[in-house]
Amino acid sequence: MLEYYGTGSSLIAIQLCTDIPRYLCLAYVSVKLPVMLIGKLYRRLKRKRLSKEEQFRIELTQEERVLLRASDSNSAEMLYVRNLFRSADKRPRSDALIARLIPKFIYEWRDDFHFSSRVLCVYSSICLLLFFIAIHVCIETIPYLHAFQGTLQQFVQRISSSNKVHDNTNEVKEQTSLFIVPQLVRPFILAVATTAIIIIIHLLALLANIRRNLFQSFRGDCCEIPRRQRSKYVSYATDYSPLGCQLESFDAGFKAYCGFIHTECAHRHPVMLVFASHLLSQVKLKQAVG
């Protein structure tokens, strides 16, 4: 690889491109940690000036703070509860800038829904893995394409020279090949980029399907994702698999996806979170007053 790329600016550019995710993560950590530390020190210094309710909120754990946010008027869970008895036409449209940029027929941005940290972490890992694979495949394969192109050109010339041309004295004359093997680097990079784009489109489509299936599970619709019934665990792959006959028993991915949707529904149902948040806030207020 050093013989192909050298040790100059090309190698430095390749190393920078490879380390982009690491630099982004390091920049986020370097900024986030000081901000959290300064915020915590500021709240401790300002603690004496706060009311009893605000002082009690500071003492809450992170899990309790996250749960109490569900009962806020502008939270996604509270907006979902408000829109339960509204039709799709009467539901207020999102005011976010990204909702105006994305056409509605491609993806409808909704303020009453947000993906969980599990989904975001999985997609972040997939994007990092896709980036590293694409970069390393291009870097490690391109140097061998030139050697392969030369070998392929020699092979084509040998095949062309094996064609015998007979003249009047039956002498055999070799003809040089007029066929030149095209460059392989650009088609290879184009193929890698096309594959990455197709995978990204598929992941975005899956993200929209996850939201649709979660909304269906929230309202008890089992048209796509079967209900959680222990007696039917064995038949999930057989009755709901997109594969054909004799293959549905091997569809472990669909069963795992069903389990993921049911887990998300059990942990993140908006009505349950709003109700639990309201109860927790009442309990904490009584403790603060008492």
What order do the helices and strands come in, and which of them pair?
Blueprint (H helix, E strand, L loop, with lengths): L1 H4 L3 H10 L1 H26 L6 H7 L3 H8 L6 H7 L14 H5 L15 H45 L23 H34 L17 H5 L11 H17 L1 H20 L1
Q: How would you portray this structure in words?
A:
With 290 residues, the protein is mainly α. It is built from 12 helices and no strands. The chain has a domain of 84 residues. Helices cover 65% and strands 0% of the residues. Helix 5 packs across helix 12, helix 6 packs across helix 12 and helix 8 packs antiparallel against helix 9. The protein is elongated, with a radius of gyration of 30 Å. About 7% of the residues have low confidence.
Brief summary:
With 290 residues, the protein is mainly α. The chain has helices spanning 2-5, 9-18, 20-45, 52-58, 62-69, 76-82, 97-101, 117-161, 185-218, 236-240, 252-268, 270-289.
Structural class comes to mainly alpha
Distance between the termini: 71 Å
Radius of gyration: 30 Å
What is the overall shape?
elongated
Biggest β-sheet strands, sense, barrel = none
**Overall pLDDT:** 78
Keywords:
elongated, 290 residues, mainly alpha
